[in-house]
Amino acid sequence: MPLALLALAVGAFGIGTTEFVMMGLLPEVADDLHIAIPTAGHLVSAYALGVVIGAPLLAAVTARMSRRTVLIGLMALFIVGNAASAFAADYHWLLAARFLSGLPHGAFFGVGAVVATSMVAPERKARSVSLMFLGLTVANVAGVPVATLMGQHLGWRATFLGVSAIGLAAIAALASLIPHDRGVAGSGAGLRGELAALKSLPVWLALGTTVAGFGALFAAYSYVTPMLTDSAGFADGSVTLLLALFGVGATVGNLVGGRLADHAMRGTLFGGLVSLVVVLALFPVLMGAQWSAGVAVVLLGVAAFVTGSPLQLMVMEKASSAPSLASSANQAAFNLANAGGAWIGGLALAAGFGVTSPAVAGAVLAVLGLGVAGAASVVDRRRVVVPGSGRERLVASHVPERGEAVRV
Hints:
The chain is mainly alpha-helical. α5 crosses α15, α9 runs antiparallel to α16 and α11 runs parallel beside α13. The protein starts with a helix and ends in a 14-residue tail after the last strand. The chain folds into 2 domains: 185 residues, MFS general substrate transporter like domains (Growth Hormone, Chain: A); 199 residues, Up-down Bundle (Growth Hormone, Chain: A), CATH 1.20.1250. The C terminus is likely disordered. It has a two-stranded antiparallel sheet with strand order 1-2. A hairpin with a 6-residue loop joins β1 and β2.
């Protein structure tokens, strides 16, 4: 694999750290700024909103620029946002800084995925994407716990200065390892060409699979702490280690999913979603003992992140004329899943169904994801490209095999 993938992973590590570290620093931030913890929780939402807005917007407006330049520019914006967080004078300035920090998130992963796949052979595309995502999963294992400890002992502002330093390291790696390119030329490129990709039904079905599938993850993961303490009986101090185990599972799932997807992309996606349904449905049982609860946390990470690379690659392939925008939109879908899944899991708790009920709600969402993925598979089997037309038509027959003539 090209060494340039390491530069993308470093950037992903920084982004993953800043995204999730706020959850661990909410008490320190709330105390320092004299606000309630629920109010401080809006800082998490502000970041997610920045991702949802920035992902398609920045990918579209930079569509004709050199992707190397875009990646470096996005990391520069990332540094500005985190430095602004460190020096925020009050809650409102920090809210704005967190929104700014989220803007480059989705576009970085979207453009980065396009760059990663362009540097490897076709049979290694999913693996290249998984190696970039490795920075994100490792951030959950090492980056977030270390940054949280740093914030607890040196102050939360020091954490964001540290994350800014990671951004500087990422820029240095991107500048030295990513090959120079001249951007995307031609009349079909640019904002109009990128936006045209979103008219495709297969693209929307792939994005819908991301929302439902990862919504299932976050319905359970958002409330995994009370499950571990109230149901499994762990002490509060043990939760950080268990969440690191989730990161280990996510890292394993990400690497395995990338390797399997290069051989059978759709099969890997279906397998991951089925595994997610099973794991989440068993959560009420697995949370009955400490050893099985630990296993459940690891399996949740594995099952969820097996689907990451195939979903990212599938969206890019369905929008081959504008992969940067579609790939970035998939990151926006991921954050919608984060917000929506947490909301649905919260509804299950509020309804009084028990502390493990968010996992059952997640299992239902995973079944929905399977349904959307199944619908996408049916659509794909009925779509063929008319040679020379650049357009797709629906046909009632099967998808032609390689080398077979297409009848229209």
